[in-house]
Design goal:
Radius of gyration: 22 Å
Number of strands: 0
Strand content: under 5%
Structural class: mainly alpha
Distance between the termini: 62 Å
Order of helices and strands: HHHHHHH
Helix content: 55-70%
């Protein structure tokens, strides 16, 4: 009977610890509004280049880490006046203004800005 009680106490303790960790853990901050806002700003480019499949690779390289940005993603990150924009109308306007600012910057394609590429229906950075 004593063994049963000690194992029960251990199991209950582990369960409580697991619940505590789960309850206090912070959720990851996905930036899905960025993709939705970008797609709304450039719907023709999104459709032509199948952005539904590319998703985050419009601005990022690979899937290992979202810290890996392509040239376009680096330009957007640098131009954003504040980081981690949540889904609000005010932040959507901030993001759209940032996209307009970045559109005038030089891209990796010689002689073209990000805006030139987007106007031609191309992605602003090559997808790898």
């Amino acid at each position: 009977m004593r063994k049963f009680c000690s194992w029960t106490m251990v199991a209950c303790g582990l369960l409580m610890a697991g619940l505590l960790v789960t309850a206090t853990a912070q959720q990851a901050q996905a930036r899905l509004p960025y993709l939705a806002w970008w797609t709304a700003t450039y719907p023709d480019v999104a459709k032509k280049n199948d952005v539904k499949t590319l998703k985050c690779n419009v601005c990022h390289v690979g899937t290992a880490s979202k810290k890996n940005r392509n040239e376009y993603g680096k330009a957007i990150a640098k131009a954003l006046p504040k980081k981690n924009l949540k889904k609000t109308d005010e932040n959507k306007e901030i993001f759209e203004t940032t996209l307009k600012t970045v559109a005038g910057q030089k891209s990796a394609t010689e002689g073209k800005t990000f805006g030139d590429l987007l106007d031609a229906g191309e992605l602003p950075s090559p997808v790898k």
